[in-house]
Write a structure and sequence with these properties.
By secondary structure, this protein is of the alpha+beta class. Helix content is 37%, strand content 19%. It is globular. This is MmyB-like transcription regulator ligand binding domain-containing protein.
Length: 203
């Protein structure tokens, strides 16, 4: 009746509960020497294994790669090539909106980043679009120093839009030594995923 009268009420966006495959969580947790985490298209970190949690320990809230890059004071010090990391975040968010231009959570994130970072605003205007592929990144970790890690992204077939990101260091390299040292530093991950249900919340 509302539609016929031309006064259809607006749809109120609700938080989406994103399911994470428990078997995938178990696989990630078994990689004691490999940082691995799960992302959605908005770059929300849905789950991470203990080594990935230790890798991002310096951030106030390791919940979303874009927020971590642009809004967290740790971002510029953590990413050795911060501008490259920032460009990649912006390109991925544009790709997310390419899949769903009405993604309320993605639009709210863009608004939040625009309000909080002039750098994001300038990069957003460039209209670059690309997803994660395979390359190397250098991180400056506050506890173990420089880490150059290759990453590979895998689409999760059971959950379209989710990507598994896996890092590795060149064997016997200084980064490999630093990564092994990082593995001795425990970091709880219960804030990221529910170990009983294998479920996590996107933002």
């Amino acid at each position: 009746m509302f539609r016929l009268a031309g006064v259809a009420p607006g749809t109120v966006p609700v938080a989406v509960r994103e399911q994470v495959d428990p078997s995938l969580l178990a696989l990630m947790d078994s990689w004691s020497e490999t940082p691995a985490f799960l992302l959605n298209r908005r770059l929300d970190i849905l789950a991470r294994n203990p080594l990935a949690a230790s890798l991002y320990r310096g951030f106030a809230n390791a919940d979303n790669l874009a927020r971590m890059t642009f809004l967290d004071p740790a971002g510029p010090a953590f990413f050795a090539d911060w501008h490259r990391a920032a460009e990649a975040c912006v390109a991925n968010l544009r790709l997310a909106l390419g899949y769903d231009a009405n993604d309320h959570a993605a639009l709210a994130l863009v608004e939040e980043l625009s309000a909080g970072s002039v750098h994001f605003d300038a990069l957003w205007a460039s209209h670059n679009v690309r997803g994660k592929t395979h390359e190397a990144k250098t991180f400056l970790h506050p506890e173990v120093g420089s880490l150059t890690l290759e990453f590979t992204s895998f689409d999760v077939r059971s959950a379209p839009g989710q990507q598994l990101i896996v890092y590795r260091a060149e064997p016997f390299s200084p980064s490999d030594t630093a990564l092994r040292l990082l593995g001795t530093i425990s970091c709880p991950v219960e804030d990221t995923a529910d170990a009983d249900t294998g479920a996590a919340f996107g933002r």
